[in-house]
Amino acid sequence: MDARADRAVPLRPRLVSRDPARTRAAILAAATTEFSRKGLHGARVDEIARCSGVNKRMIYHYFDDKNGLYLAVLEKSYTAIRTAELELSLAEQTPVEGMRTLVLFTWNYLSSHPEFLSLLATENLHRGANVKKLPHIRKLHSPLIVMISKLLKRGVKQKLFRKNVDPMQLYISMAALAFFYLSNKHTLSTIFGRDLNAPAARAERELHVVDVVLGYLRA
Q1: What SS3 string covers 67-96?
Q2: Statement to judge: residues 78 and 47 lie in one domain
Q3: How far is CA 73 from CA 1, 30, 70, 191, in A?
Q4: Are 88 and 36 within one domain?
Q5: Number of domains observed in the structure of the chain
Q6: Which of 9, 16, 48, 110 has CA atoms 20 to 30 A from the CA of 162?
Q7: How far from the centroid of its chain's Cα atoms is residue 102's Cα?
Q8: What's the CA gap between 205 and 182, in Å, rounded?
Q9: Domain that holds residue 162
Q10: Same structural domain, 54 and 15
Q11: What's the CA angle centered on 99, arms 93 and 103, to 5 degrees?
Q12: Are 206 and 107 in contact (CB under 8 A)?
């Protein structure tokens, strides 16, 4: 390797050779930013290497190619939100409080992870062709549906929730109420003449999403 290139990215050699776990994490973090900003085709491995401080050869060593790296980013992103959901301890809450917790979590997670919204948009442009390649994607989402199903059953038993609610449809609606607002806030702000990204507007939307979901569920 050219010595001048080493000097241009000083973190590269030490990060690669001495801490594989940290190296992989640095690559994935830089790749997440690059893919969320430029999409799959627009992203550049050279830029990921520069931002992560990792030798480009090591990126190919860990992930084979750019598509392999993109798949790893997708898997990491899905795993992060699903893991965080399972840590909400919804079984210890009343059905109404548990559902409110999940709705608020969904709103706040999507609100604080715009890169996840971008990755989802990119993957849908590709008609889900890449997410289909993730071997554990369905198993990853199964616990979420089970968790919602248990909340619904307890709510019905206590005569708090309506009957025959599909947990998958409920989650899609819950996520959509947040996703559409957050991913379209710039165009919506222009159309309606209101700054929908302002703290007060986001707080208003958060309450609205909770009210819509709990109002639908009410027995």
Answers
A1: HHHHHHHHHHHHHHHHHHHHCCCHHHCCHH
A2: no
A3: 27, 10, 5, 33
A4: no
A5: 2
A6: 110
A7: 15
A8: 10
A9: 67-217
A10: yes
A11: 130
A12: yes
pLDDT attached to residue 19: 81
Are 95 and 166 in a shared domain?
Answer: yes
Report the C-alpha gap between 44 and 35 in whole angstroms. Answer: 9
Q: What confidence tens digit (pLDDT) does each residue in 143-187 have?
A: 999 999 999 999 999 999 999 999 999 999 999 999 999 999 999
210 with 115, same domain?
yes
Q: Cα–Cα distances in Å, from 88 out to 83, 97, 148?
A: 9, 11, 12
* DSSP assignment string, the chain: --HHHHHHSTTHHHHHHH-HHHHHHHHHHHHHHHHHHHHHHH--HHHHHHHHT--HHHHHHHHSSHHHHHHHHHHHHHHHHHHHHHTT-GGGS-HHHHHHHHHHHHHHHHHH-HHHHHHHHHHHHTTTTTGGG-TTHHHHHHHHHHHHHHHHHHHHHTT-B-S---HHHHHHHHHHHHHHHHHTHHHHHHHHTS-TTSHHHHHHHHHHHHHHHHHHHB-
Q: Are residues 116 and 135 in the same domain?
A: yes
Tokens of 121: 């948009």
Confidence of residue 20 (pLDDT cuts 50, 70, 90): confident
Name the token pair of 95: 């059905």
Judge whether residue 66 has pLDDT over 90: yes
Tell me, yes or no, whether 72 and 58 share the same domain: no
| Spacing of C-alpha 77 from chain mean position | 5
